[in-house]
Model the fold of this input.
Amino acid sequence: MTLEEKRRYLGRYQISAMRIRGLQAEIESLRSFAQRTTQSFDKQPGGGNTPSDRVGLLAAQIADDEQKIREELSACIRLRNEIRDMIQEVGDEKARELLRMRFLCGKKIWQMAASLHYDERFLRRKLNHAVEMVDFSKIRPQKPCKARVK
Done:
């Protein structure tokens, strides 16, 4: 892998964090929709099994959608754990801290440079060296953690 590919892979940690928040909001939205819909069917006057049939079909569809979202959520969490473990395995403590600040905490280079009292160019070189220390040989192919298309 090139240095850019390695940085991009480590950067997926923050992308997956955003995706996790979006997926959690999607699950809450589905649950809220299910609750509102069930209540509206309950308020309809009698007349056969039609409303309960609709509720059953709707509940099954919502359960399927929620399961798909949970699978994607699991993939995002696995990716985050994998990246966190890869960074934790870096032997040099200072390099590990730079990687943690940049990729796990999502700090910008200028923020890191200011807090560490480093020149930005010097920090970039140190960070590139730290990225090279990460062992990417253990990467498992997995489903990408990305936005779903409906």
